[in-house]
Amino acid sequence: MKNLLLLFLLVISANCFSQNYKITYLKSSNGNLIENQDAVWVFANNNQTLLSTENIRNQKADFPFEETIVDRSSNSFFQKATLKSSEIIATKDSVSLGKQTFEYTNDTKKVLGYNCKKAKTIVNSNTIEFWYTDELKVKGSPTVLGQNLGLVLEMVRNGNFVISATKIEQIKSFPIFQLPQKQVDALTYKDLLWKSRFTTISVFKDQILNFSDESKSNDSILRFANGTIAVRKVQLPEIKVGSQIFVDVTEQSNGDAYDRTGSLFMIPTDKEISFLNGLQNGAKTLPIYTNGNGKEYQGVIITDNYNPVVELMRFFTPFGVKQYNTLQLKDKTWAENVLYRQDVSDLRSLLSGKEVWLGINIGNYDKGGHKVSANITIHTENESIIKPTQIIPLFCTNNIMEMAGQEYGTMFNNDKGLEVSFKLEKPMKNCKLRYITTGHGGWENGDEFVPKKNSIYLNDKETFSFTPWRQDCGSYRLSNPASGNFPNGLSSSDYSRSNWCPGTVTNPIFIDLGDLEAGTHLMQIKIPQGLPEGGSFSSWNVSGVLIGEQ
């Protein structure tokens, strides 16, 4: 098999007893022909079958694209993927075709004038029917499935998705199919092909977020708040309107056993002062918000010369995943890490084509802390119904700089709560508030464990209210090896909380605000925050950005 590592051509000349055919297929869904589709082209003779498309063969296909050739003599096939102009991979499968099984029926019908018989199979709970003919003395199918039935002229999946032959042509010669030097196993092939379909931007890799005087910045990553915050500058490509954008964070304990607040965030730098100034020069250098309770809250609301951070993702660490997996319980196999993944496509206009400061933090006082990795993935789509948006960061009371003295979000202990004044230079249509909220105060009467109503007011009118509460925390028990166990049979990680669970993401909610006129507007967040008990107190981490159509 060493010759498979060399560049070669899979070209078998058709002899005088073999005919070469080209079959064109089109796809339909629920009886309607799919618009602007790339027609499937199948080439077949006695010796081989090539699966391709019109755009691929005319060199108009977007990367990545894939072709498959079936070798009839060995009942095997090669798959070739062109990931980009400079990278082509291939793999060989010698077993799959022989494992395909079908139920043969007595049904018959004509397709393009050829007598066809019917066979069917079930794949991943999908019923697939094949109409195939033996009259052309060649075999082929518009997919790898059904290659040995005969010449498949129609495939029907679950009765509503159809791939049907529209034209059969006899051609002089079989197309050239060239295999590349890079040949890989099937699993690697699938993985490389899948990853080539989207853009991955690595933001942080195995970053330690801990509390230590030894935590130092380097040329690419800045460390703040005794190592509990990491920040770096990232260049993002242009992102088409309608594309999907995801962020993911992988976390495991590197020493800290507790459930902690984490955030992956962006620092706006379009005004005179930014959160980066506070990181570099201290929280007190940020604009101060007061509500009459005697405390000063640093950098939490928009001002004329400052925009607060934008949280891409709020997440919570579990109790000691990985580091404390040695704490064994019968019938419990602990997770090795926790993966948080969230759609942030709504924030496209803040990210597209820009060089931005991205940060990640986990509040903790442990020298080992936590190990994290973070990525952004961009999945290009051309969704015509999505309209460009304008985004205005309004507030963020999550005290990301907690370990550098930033005040907790305790401003909800009086009726004023959190007030934010913002000015629109021009009207915005179909406005929404992207709102994230979590309650904290980790004792039995603290707001972490007591449901509290959140009320949002706009221009002195209540716009929306709800009680944020998570009741599914027990679903994540296997990520929480160090969670305390109580006499009633529950673990700490099982208990319901104010919109978060140890080991989960807190999803934003989107509050409709309608059309907003140009001028100054006032937003107010009210929460009946609980009273302190001894040294324990409640707080609320809320953040919000205004999103409206341009």
Task: Describe this protein's structure.
With about 550 residues, the chain is mainly beta. Helix content is about 5%, strand content about 45%. The chain has helices spanning about 55, 95-100, 185-195, 275-280, 350, and strands at about 10, 20-30, 30-35, 40-45, 50-55, 65-70, 75-85, 85-95, 105-110, 115-125, 125-135, 150-155, 160-170, 180, 200-210, 220-225, 230-235, 245-255, 260-265, 290, 295-300, 310-315, 340-345, 355-360, 370-380, 390-395, 420-425, 430-440, 455-460, 460-465, 505, 510-515, 520-525, 540-550. The strands form seven sheets. Strands 2, 3, 4, 5, 6, 7, 8, 9, 10, 11, 12 and 13 form a twelve-stranded antiparallel β-sheet that branches. A hairpin with a 2-residue loop joins strand 9 (about 105-110) and strand 10. It is elongated and about 90 Å long.
**Whole-number average pLDDT?**
95
Determine the structural class based on helices, strands and strand pairing: mainly beta
What can be said about the biggest beta sheet? 12 strands, antiparallel
Would you count the extended β strands for me? 34
The fraction of residues assigned to DSSP E strands is 35-45%
Number of helices: 5
Radius of gyration: 30 Å
Residue windows where pLDDT falls under 50 for at least 5 positions: 1-16
Shape annotation: elongated
Helical content, roughly?
under 10%
- Cα end-to-end separation: 60 Å
